[in-house]
Hints:
The structure holds two protein chains of two kinds. By secondary structure, chain A is of the alpha/beta class.
Amino acid sequence: MTVNLVVVSHSDKIADGAAELAAQMAPDVLILPAGGTDDGRIGTSLERVMAALEQAGDANGDGIVVLTDLGSAVMTAESAVEFMADPSSVLLADAPLVEGLVAAAVAAQAGAAAEGVKEAAEAVYRPPAAPQHAHEHRPPEATGDFELVNQAGMHARPAAKIAGGLSGLDAEVTLNGVDGASMTELMMLGAAKGTVLHVEASGPDAAKAVDYLRGLITAGFGEP
Amino acid sequence: MGLDVNWALRWLTLSAQAMAEHREELIELDRPIGDSDHGENMDRGFKAVMVKLAEVPPETAGAALKLTAMTLMSKVGGAAGPLYGTAFLRAATALGETADIDAATLASAFQAARDGIVARGKAESGDKTMVDAWTPAVDAAAAAAGDSDVHKVLAAAAEAAEAGAVSTDPMLARKGRASYLGERSIGHRDPGAVSSALILRAAAGAAE
Lengths: 224, 208
């Protein structure tokens, strides 16, 4: 079971488009768009949001996380949650809609619980992880250096695979100093083909994490 | 004699009429500092309320306000939907099954409505929002409730809300779409405060 996602936007097209984008990286996650008004205008509708929440609730997942755009989308989502039979089953993520949704979907796909999915969405706001020297006193338990061999290098899909795979492991992992669990930070590396990624991992699954990344990166993420 | 379901129905009808009459005015107010949809949204929302009230005539004032709340949240579209929706819902809860609404209950229902708007929109007094109409109205209603005359409570609330709406002119918007304009929001009256004053004036008119 995975966490189900609901996307509340003023625009039907934005909600649909964001859901479509996120679904590319999280094919097994239920992502329900609830955009626009009942009659197809710009705005938000309690009925639409409640219908999506009920559908998400009926789908028998591990809870629901809601992503919203601005103003009334947040207020309508909050109102809808108040009307739910079990408001505690729904978490509202305070995150940028598109980036947050993609991060949430990747986390849900990897099996994270509702809190973790919300956290993943909200993490895209935060500045990149503290520079590596902050951890110098604690040497990593496993390391590795792997060259990016796929044509496109580090982009959204590889970043999603790395972050998604790592979120299922009990390890703190950095790649060239950035948090391996953060899709956004990985993408911000701007690493092209030929870049060597230096991996450092700590925690019970440190070795497993390095093995996972070795397999993924040296195989070019299954891309040409 | 307090207020009953017929007062609530007249209030909502007069509100719908006011939104239709002031539709263009609200659109014009919203144009420079918002997305110029407030008049249209409120008119559409209250027209939908009229349809709902005719479909299933409510038996108490509380039920009428609850139906209004649900309809506005679904049909308005803009931020006014969940804000007024929450206001009417909290007022409905405050009234409960009361068939004969006295001055104190009325004043507490207005306060519940205002508290709902604040909880939902997280705006404070002086942010250039509908709160700047509601808070003076709630204070005036509470002060007038001492005389145990619902008409005085309604009149005081309406008058204070109207003055509150005017008081938003020099304010710098700190909430909602208008806040993106910063200094440029100064000199414009907040459309949400104006529609709030219209609704509270309708409440007074319904008891005459």
